[in-house]
Every structure is written in structure tokens, then in C-alpha cells.
Amino acid sequence: MNSQSYNNNNSNSNSNSNHIFVNLPLLLIATIVRELDSDVERICFSLTCRRWFYLREKYIWFTCSYIPKSFKGWLLDPKTNPTFTLNSFRELLHRGVDAKPIKSILVCNKDYFKNIKSISTTTYYDDYIPIEDIENYVISESCTDITFISHIINQIAIDKISKSNIKTVVFRTDSFEFGNHQRLPLNISTIILHRSIDESLLPLNLKKLVLGCSPPPRAIDAAKLPRSLEHLYIEGRHDDPVDVGAFPPNLKFLHYINYYESPLNVQLPQSLTHVSITNIWLPHISNLKSIKRLEIDLVDDFPILSVDIPSSVTQLIYATTNIEFFVTPFIIPRNIKYLRLAGQCRYEPNIFAQFDRLKTLEVISNEKTELVIGELPESLTTLTLPYQIDMPLEQYVKLPPRLENLYIHGYKGVISYMPTTVKTIELRQNTFKYPVIIPPSVETVYFQYWNENDTVDIRSDDWPPSLTSMSTNDILPFQLPKSITSVNLFKIESSFNFFIQRLNETTFLVHGARNSNLVFFISNWDTIRILLPKLNV
């Protein structure tokens, strides 16, 4: 319910004591609010009626799921966070953060701890302590995640974890020492590290292991990995010898870009469903029947045969950065639903038309291309095209009749035909030389930065009435069509992300973040359009 539709029913609804919505029992109002998905929606609900606003503390509460508990003092203090101007909700947010259970802890050394305490910012954790004080620290029953940036993880800390409900441990340091070098506790199911670890220290019940690559890790000993492991992600590129046949038998997810050639007759675990490897390792999965998603990092001089790709694969990614790779129909499974070609992939026109179950096709490249996609299957609903297309769109691709999502990035030409089924489209920013026309039927539009000096506003006449939301990483439009109810303004190069929600015809709620500053305010469109870009400094 918004104030615009509400006022259409009764122009004096805020002061009408007999209005059915105004006089809903608080218990019923609380039940309605409980069904709302976000704290922002709860704020909007309370602003639609004067009575509901005055009684907000009796029925409204905030989950504060996006606010770490340690943020509270800084976030809600007008001196440290003047961008938070919803003063009427400040106390409610205080209460929500206070009630939030501690779910994450940061353990650091004393110098780091003093630095946290001495500045106005804080961490993204619910609580933080120096490693020296952990003996007297009581880990909350609600806490499931703990992160160490201390180089020494003492035995006291390990014993504390073993008696807690901690499930995930993160080590954010390039070097560390464990207490008495015994296995980590059995209750740990996920470990994330920035470096290698002695496999003999891993808990026997471990389900997920993520290994960073800084400094360069040593070769992994697959035979020593816990047999319970289901998810293994190893960052970076490697050429270390590894026993391919020794990986845990229950492994379902494997990301391991390794160029080492192992014996061809050895297979990876039959349980795998998601795999990211080089084409050198394809013979190790050719007989697997459970793989659904396969990502191949392409290496030169290792051709791919049709028998190398399991027939069970429905999501396939070919990625290349420094070699040209020719894609043929023989190395695409017949049942493919998602296909992504990234980098210098080459193909013949019309080769995708024969895959009648294909739903999503992504052709990703920053280079100018003269390749033609041509015909596409009628089953296709999502299409992503290269960033630079130097020919009319109708010569490059024939858009299928059921297309719903189209991402054409930097294409400068005119779109002469668009299926009426298209609901989401991504375009470059509007310019004088290459004006943008948003096709009818589109409900969501994403504008991508193109050239800041050429960017101009879109005329209000060019917005289709079907449009309800937009996203942009450049300028906000001078006038916002009444049909648009939500706007996202973001900057990829900086931590700048704002959401704008329409409250009524002239008023909007703005919420988001600039670096570590959370921002909430209500204003009109002209003020928002001028103010938000100035915050990105």
C-alpha cells in the first residue's frame, strides 16, 4: 500500500477516524508488517498513515539484518553519521540493533583492536576482541562465524570454538600458527583462508574449504583432505602435480584451475555437480554423469572432443583470455540451457539455433567483433551481447520471439525490432550522437556508463508507460516518469550504492551506502537528483 493509492480511496484518509484502514487493530497491523520483506518496506508502511506513524513503536520493529551489532553507536549517533536523517526512527533502530543476536566475531591482535576503538568507523562484525582477551570472552550461542586476523591462533581460542556453535572460520592473514597443531574442532563445517593449510589440521567433518592464493600456495594434497568435503574452491592458476583420483568421494563443487597433466585414465569423484577446470583436465570428468554446471578455462594446444563434455551438463562456460578458441556444435551438449562464451571465442553464424532447450546465451567480449550470431532458438529468454557491435543489430542477431531479458551494453545503433515479450533491457547511457530509445513493454532498464562527456538526459516522452524500475551508474534523469517506483544508482569503482523508492507522486525514500556510511532520507526528486552525485566524492 502506498500513500498515492491510499489517498485515491479517501482524500482525507489521514484524519478520517472512521476509515477502515486507519483503524486496523495494532495486532493486525503487526501481522501485516511481519510479512514485509525489509526494514525499508516497514518504514514505508508506517509513513502511509498518520495514526500508523504515531503508533509506530507499538507495532513496528526492525530486523537490522544489514547492520552489524558493532555499528550501533556510530551509525545512530547524529555527530558521527549526519547522513541518517530519519530521526523519528532512530530509537526504533537502536532497539532493533540491541535485540539482534551476535552472529559474527572478529578476533585480532591488540594493535588492530586499539585502532578500531580509536576511530569513528567500526568493523563489519557484530563483535570484536583481541586474541589476548579471548580466555575471558563468552561466545554467544547465536554466533556461527568467527574471523581471525591474528597471526597466532592460540589453543584457548581453538578450545573455545570447540565448545561453541561456530560453523564457519575465516583466516584473514597470510601466515598463522595454530595452538598445539592438532586438528581443528569437529563443529567447524566451513573454512576460508587466504593461503594454504596443512591438510592434517582440517576438521574431519569439514564440508566447505576455500583457499586463497596469496602468497602462492603449495600443491594441495588431495588424499589428506577430509573425506566429508563437499565444496572445494582454490583460487588462482596452478601447475602443481596432484593426485586427481584422491579427491574426497562426496565432493560436489570443485573450482581448481590446474595445468598439470595427470594420467588420462583417472576420474574425479562421481558426485561432482559443479566443476571449474582447464580443458587439460576434461578427460578426468568425461565419464561423470552428475555434472550440471561446467566452466572451462581454455588452454592452447589441448583440443576439446565431443566425448569430453558429459551429456548431463546443462550450464556450460567457455572462457579464454589470450587465445582464440573455435566453438563448434559438437562441444555443446544437446540439453544445454545456459551457455556463456567469454573472451576470444569464435563461432559460425546460426550455430546456436539448433539447441532448442537453450534459455540463456551470454557472449562476453570487450573487443570489436565482426562475428555474426544469426538465428537463435525460440526457447531463448535471456541474451547478453558483446560490448561493441559495429553493425546494425538486425544484421548481427535475429532476436527470438520469446526473449524477456536483453543486455546490449555499448551498442550505438538503432534497435529496429524488439519482441514485445522483452521486460528487462540493459543499454548504454543516452548521448546526442547515439540517442537511446527504450522499447515498449520494457519494465526494467539498466543504463551502463558509456562516455561521461556525451551523456545527456532522456526526454520524458521517450520513457514507455510500462517502465517501473531503472538502474544507472551515471546521471539520474531530470524528470522521473510516474510509472517508475524504484531507482538504483551505483558506482562500480567505489562503494556507492543507493536505492530510491517512490512513496507517492512527489516523495521518495532514499537508502544506501557510501563507503561505510549508511544514508537514509526522504525528499523530492529534484533534491535527490542533485544531492546523490555529490555524495560520491
Automatic annotation (TrEMBL):
InterPro entries: STK_FNIP-Repeat. This is F-box domain-containing protein. It comes from Heterostelium pallidum (strain ATCC 26659 / Pp 5 / PN500) (Cellular slime mold). The lineage of its organism: Eukaryota, Amoebozoa, Evosea, Eumycetozoa, Dictyostelia.
